[in-house]
Amino acid sequence: MQQSPRDGREGDVLAVVSQSGPTVSFFDVVSDRHLGDVRVPAEPHELCFDATRRLLWCTLTYRSGYYHANGGRRTEVAVIDPDARRIVELVDLAPEHGPHGLALDPARGRLYVSVEGKDDRPGGVVVVDTETRRPVGRIDTDAPGPHWFAIDPAGRTGCATNKEAPFVSIVDLERDTLTARAEVPGSEGLAVSADGAHAFVAAPYADFSGVTGERPATGIRVVDTRTASVVGTLPTEDVVLPVHLTSTGRLLAGEVRVAPDPASRLGRQAPGRLTVFHAGTRERLGHVEVGLFPLTIASSPDGRLAYVACVVSSTVDIVDLETLERLARLDIAKLGEPGAHGLAYLPRRA
């Protein structure tokens, strides 16, 4: 009998943010059964799982709305016990605000949280000690709104993408300082290669306002983090927001397919696309259709399964990355929880 890609995952859980719920929902990864929810303050965005302490971190970014159209910025990160399904603590980063991107260095016990700038300082990355759950530092990124942040597995190099600023901020995590700026025409999601030598950056910045005029070609810029230069581009048909690198070296890009609509800042949506590349050879391996407006991508630890959260349809597509077939779709909206966003794969307790 052929083995299912879900075999051997009993006890593993997928956590999904409902941005407008506002909740974090939990699902059995084998059966897709809804296990329960944790209600959080508005408005949750991203998730990061600390397997060492078995805690789930969740950024609370705005009081309502989204980037460029929000009802005020929040200052907290929620710490959740995923097994008891309760909030352990709300960590207040004030005076920092607009926390969004999360990256974990488990070896050093550090969590990196991107925050938006204010009149008196640029955006940056707050360093949080995961044992004390308190901020212990800040790294300026020289841009007003670093929205996504990623680090290499060794915890030496970090990169922040900047929606409006025409560069990616490259930081030295051993010295906690900005070291370079790579010229990229406004950027969205990103991933850093296993050796830290390259960052894969979605560009240009997603603009669905219908403004006409020449815009840079859509795709993923390959940035050499040592020279802070763009050394290649992986072309895509449509604008990309989330980028994710699996443990097996597959580079996943969430393409948003949209037409300008004067009645909506987010435009008129069509089904999105998960496009898969080989990170090493940069070969395009294929694609599969997903829900409306893919915004976050996660994968199983073995790199076999991809999870694509689509915020407008409030769905999560589960994709077999070997066959590029969609196995299932979690309909978060049916739970009464609109706006699927952050994702985290939680292996069962050892």
From TrEMBL:
<dbReference type="InterPro" id="IPR051200">
    <property type="entry name" value="Host-pathogen_enzymatic-act"/>
</dbReference>
<protein>
    <recommendedName>
        <fullName>Surface layer protein</fullName>
    </recommendedName>
</protein>
<dbReference type="InterPro" id="IPR015943">
    <property type="entry name" value="WD40/YVTN_repeat-like_dom_sf"/>
</dbReference>
<dbReference type="InterPro" id="IPR011045">
    <property type="entry name" value="N2O_reductase_N"/>
</dbReference>
